[in-house]
Amino acid sequence: MPKRYHSALVFLHWLMALMIIAALVAGTFVLAPVDNSDPAKLLSFQMHMGLGLAIGALLLLRLIVRASTAHPAPATTGIALADRLAPLAHWALYLLVLAMVGSGVALSLASGLGNAVFFGGEMPANFNGIAARTGHGVIATLLMITIGLHILAALWHQLVRRDGLLSRMGFGKR
Question: Hey, what domains does the chain have and what are their CATH numbers?
Fold first, then answer.
């Protein structure tokens, strides 16, 4: 059994982490506060939506790599509840990212935003009353919370337990 995850999985983990955080920051602090009539918002949407679609494609690739490579043994903390919750939290991250991509696509289709962003159509005046917009926001919040907990758990392993768990998601000999 390897001590580290496959290098392709490690690469995808860190690349996707950066991309997901960038998309969440852009959606929260760049897109949300700007009115749809502002011409700069169209360029921001082009980058945000392109990033979201790339994240979706990489997620599918990551799941394929995960299913086809050997993994280190499950980590143990000595805390039964934590050991049971950790795999659920990891799958929650996958599901939330998938839900973000899906709700983003649904929002784009329901509002006509995709036509504006990719084909030069008119920007919608707003996204009021579009259920996918509400879902996208709720899922973003849940994803940010789950990512925060994931980071805190990794730091706890690294700085408090000092068990080297973080090295499993690093490059090096497997």
Answer: 7-169 (1.20.950)
